[in-house]
Amino acid sequence: MHKLVERLKGFSWQQWSVVAAFLLVSAFTGLHAFRAVRNAAYWSHHRDEPIRAWMNVGYVAHSYHVPPPVLYEALGMERLPHDKRPIRVIAREQHRSVNEVIAILQEAIVRARQPGAPPPPPPGPPGPPNQGRAP
User: Fold this and answer.
1) Hey, which residues does 86 pair with through a beta bridge?
2) Quick one: CA dihedral 35, 40, 44, 46, positive or negative?
3) What pLDDT is recorded for position 87?
């Protein structure tokens, strides 16, 4: 241990910068590995959860492994970017009961899961059109 301390005391600023970079990269990698494992564990236990009023369409789609555009189409809505409105708000905006909206979502999920169901529309980023500019 004493030799290690003596060796560390002799480090130049370049060596310390390499150590600092290594520690930062290790922390970054560890954080993202932890988040990936946590998300995998969460969603493996939250499949096909009963639909509740607090859930948003994206959460329901993820839980039931159905593309979000299928559910938005069933509700007669356009998919908005980063739409986090809960089902209760969507129901209020559409002048329907929460149970009615949940029933519509459940029917859409059953239809989307049927063998031979038409493929979902291709995912495209919602937003303004390209307006002729090259990517």
Assistant:
1) 56
2) positive
3) 95
104 exposure class (CB count in 10 Å sphere: 0-12, 13-18, 19+): middle
Give the residue-averaged pLDDT of 20-42: 89
How many Å apart are CA 107 and CA 128, to the nearest integer? 31
SS3 86: strand
DSSP 29-78: HHHHHHHHHHHHHHHHH-TTPPP-TT-BHHHHHHHHT--HHHHHHHTT-P
Provide mean pLDDT across the span 95-121.
86
| Residue 95, phi then psi, degrees to nearest 5 | 55, 45
Q: What is the pTM of this model?
A: 0.58
**For residues 82-97, average pLDDT:** 94
Separation CA 44–CA 38 (nearest Å) = 10
CA atoms within 13 A on the CB side of 28: 6
What is the distance between the terminal CA atoms of the chain, rounded to a whole angstrom? 56
> Per-residue pLDDT tens for 45-82?
667 789 999 999 999 998 899 999 999 999 999 888 88
